[in-house]
Design brief:
By secondary structure, the protein is of the alpha/beta class. The protein has two domains: 31 residues, no CATH class; 117 residues, HAD superfamily/HAD-like (Rossmann fold). It is built from six helices and four strands. Strands 3-2-1-4 form a four-stranded parallel sheet. The longest helix is centred in the C-terminal third of the chain and has 14 residues. The radius of gyration is 27 Å and the shape is elongated. It starts with a helix and ends in a 6-residue tail after the last helix.
């Protein structure tokens, strides 16, 4: 049987899906269906937001790993606005890292649950909590230094203002 005869036989006698070829009633073949043509690609937008010093006031520092302070004023509302804009809200924190959790004698899952509970108690929306810095449209972080046009000297000057340093 040549290829053309074989294709005609499939169109006449069988479904294009092997699992359907066992049916007694056969439907006439109406053409090929390409699933990817029916898919609509929607790019997920993501906001990565640091917890400590950004949402959580963090007035006492690490303090045995507890999440103890109130959130900063306005954080809840801006995060809710970001969600309405279609962003996935990912809270990142080193509290969720394996190393910090082990230091506290627990596991990262427990730390993540503590953060999640604090966010829920304070009515702050989130999609997930992680220690990983994932690809995102932007990061909101109290420790961030913005670099513009690759100007590393400007970055150095910002760092000099924030830390004690040895003279050049």
């Amino acid at each position: 049987m040549n290829l053309e005869d074989y294709l005609n036989k499939i169109q006449r006698d069988e479904s294009i899906f092997p699992m359907d070829s066992y049916h007694k009633k056969k439907k006439p073949f109406k053409g090929y269906y390409y699933p990817e043509s029916a898919l609509v690609f929607v790019e997920q937008r993501r906001a990565m937001i640091d917890l400590d010093g950004t949402i959580h006031k963090y007035s006492k520092g690490w303090n045995d790993g507890d999440v103890y302070d109130d959130p900063f004023k306005g954080s809840r509302e801006v995060i809710a606005w970001l969600k309405k804009q279609g962003f996935e809200i990912v809270i990142f924190t080193t509290r969720a890292s394996k190393g910090n959790a082990e230091e506290m004698g627990g596991d990262e899952g427990k730390q993540i649950r503590n953060v999640e509970n604090w966010l829920k108690d304070n009515n702050i929306y989130f999609d997930r909590v992680t220690a990983d810095k994932l690809a995102a449209d932007f990061y909101i972080d109290d420790k961030a230094i913005e670099i513009k046009n690759g100007d590393w000297n400007a970055v150095k000057n910002v760092i000099k203002k924030r830390i004690k340093y040895k003279a050049d």
